[in-house]
Amino acid sequence: MKRDRELLYDLLVVRSVEQEIARRYSEQQMRCPTHLCIGQEATAVGVCAALRPEDVVFSGHRSHGHYLAKGGDLTAMLAELYGRGSGCSAGKGGSMHLVDLSVGFLGAVPIVGSTIPMAVGAALGFLLQKLPRVSVVFFGDAAVEEGVTWESIDFALLERLPVVFVCENNLYSVQTPLSARQPAGRTIAQVAAGHGVETESVDGNDVFAVQRAARAAVDRARAGGGPTFLELATYRHLEHVGPNEDVSLGYRSAEEVEAWRARCPVEHATRVLLERGELDASELDELRRRILRDVRHALELARDAPEAQGSLLSDVFASTVSPIDGDQR
Amino acid sequence: MPQMNMVQAINDALRIAMKRDDRVVVMGEDVGRVGGVFRVTAGLFDEFGDERVIDTPLSEGGIIGAAAGMALYGMVPIPEIQFSDFIWPAYDQIVSEVAKYRYRSGGEYPCKMVIRTPVGGGIRGGHYHSQHPEAQFIHVAGLKVVCPSNPYDAKGLLLASIEDPDPVLFFEPKRIYRAAKGDVPEGAFTVDLESAQVVREGGDVTIVTYGAMLYECLDAAEKVAGEGVECDVIDLRTLWPIDVTTLTESVKKTGRVVIVHEAPKTCGFGSELVSLICEKVFYHLQAPPKRVTGFDTPFPYTLEMEYLPLSHRIVPAVLETARA
Fold this sequence. Notes:
The structure holds 2 protein chains of 2 kinds. In chain A, a hairpin with a 2-residue loop joins β5 and β6 (176-177). In chain A, α1 runs antiparallel to α11 (265-276). Chain A is α/β, with parallel strands linked by helices. Chain A is globular. Chain A has one domain (4-304): Thiamin diphosphate (ThDP)-binding fold, Pyr/PP domains (Rossmann fold, 3-Layer(aba) Sandwich), CATH 3.40.50.970. In chain A, 43% of the residues lie in helices and 11% in strands. By secondary structure, chain B is α/β, with parallel strands linked by helices. Chain B has 12 helices and 14 strands. Chain B has helices at residues 6-20, 44-48, 60-72, 91-98, 101-104, 134-138, 151-163, 213-225, 244-254, 269-281, 304-307, 311-323; strands at 3-5, 24-28, 53-55, 76-80, 114-119, 144-146, 168-173, 181-183, 197-200, 205-209, 231-235, 238-240, 257-264, 290-294. The termini of chain B are far apart. The A-B interface holds A 31-33, 83, 91-94, 96-97, 109-113, 142-143, 145-148, 173-176, 180-182, 251, 307-309, 311-313, 316, 322, 324-325, 328-329 and B 29-30, 32-34, 37, 55-62, 85-86, 88-89, 123-129, 265-266, 295-298, 300-303, 306-307, 313.
């Protein structure tokens, strides 16, 4: 568990990183398609705060927050976006393909739903090896439309696996709203509960509530109580992919975006701590300044690192090379 | 004649097909109100409504399976898979159902549909937004596989695919969605499936390609012409069933062949092309056939210009083949 002040710090870091990426994206040096999590920071921070370093996390295309909250290295993540050899995926992946086993971030894959069975498999591995670890998978509201999600949940239930399914419901798949993709009159949590998995719906923009719910789920999983499904209500402030706002596209209203901005997870946590007197305005300013300085420093280190070069054919296999490598070029 | 890019030409073909045949239904992730992530289906939702332009759940297997059921009941579904890298959850439906229905029903129940999907590299999408998986589908008997290189062909081939009685997988090279422009006739016309096109003529080396790599091959052909090597450049357009005659007639003339495609080399479509050429015109060959392709690696993000078989890799291959 993290103290509330630590949670706020983590939220501020993720927000600052995403804002700085957005600010620099137009410099055309980060060239990969990039899905920012501004507005959704509390799901990543709250859930990961309930984890131990040896627990593992899987994610999808919008993974920066998950990676950072799990303890990922900021410079390595930014270097990956810049396509540098020092990136956490050696510059071969980009924003959507972060992976760092050293912090238990077993991988982001932008094929929606595809990491859900992997998280179940990791949990099965922990159970068989009698390791007291928990596996967590983050996915969006559209992932529940893939069949493999429910196949995975069934298996996790059957084997009482230590896995937590975290559905970040931000109401949109690309630009298509939930109402156009899923039947009316039922929630995702109801569907999950119908499968028999312990389910909880939480305000995903309240980092404290998210941590509480995640902690309960993680404790249960670790104690042999099986999987939990968390539906976290949240909202992405910017466009599906890229650094811009997107109200002009017309698929969601300015009023809707404003209403959700008023429920900003970073502002919520800030307000709570200020009201409680656990933080004052000058401390907050100092905190923000320090974070921004660190983020900018990491950005510069990442940008100035050497490009990934000459490594195209490496790491396809452990040690052997393709028999035709010699005449591939 | 209007100028169009690939996106506009494909959109035009879809509109024409939907206007003249009520059975034609477009379906897929974000294809309706949004008009598709590449805007290929823009405007169709407003024109034809939500019963003919269907925003589906994010469920590739469900999309293709549902399309198969519609097709068996006499409709003409045109499902879109948002990126061809996302097609694998639907592979079971495509391989096990769509490709086999005609055969297993003794010819009685065709599973006529056109699966449209953006393909290939060039947008820095990395591992899962860049691949070119045609070989995995050509290998499955019962599917036709098309990959246009320009707006005229895109419209004509798509309309031909929609008219065709069999299931067609229609790969749209996203790298040239907007970059490739050209004159496209108004109204309906078709480009015959199974018709390759000789885009440039020359007697020394045959270059065989399709999709976005056509432009790299044409650039390479221009460069080697400066060194006195003249190339036939063949755009296959339909990958399967293949226009064998155009291929073999050219190789008979030149005796030398270079095959260019984005997908990895091993068991890529180039392997089949080399086999066909060896089986049919082996004694006309004057040099070993050569393949310039993507590498036998996952598709990389920053290294994509190294990975793709661009002109600078085609030129030496052609010269080597010409002088072998």
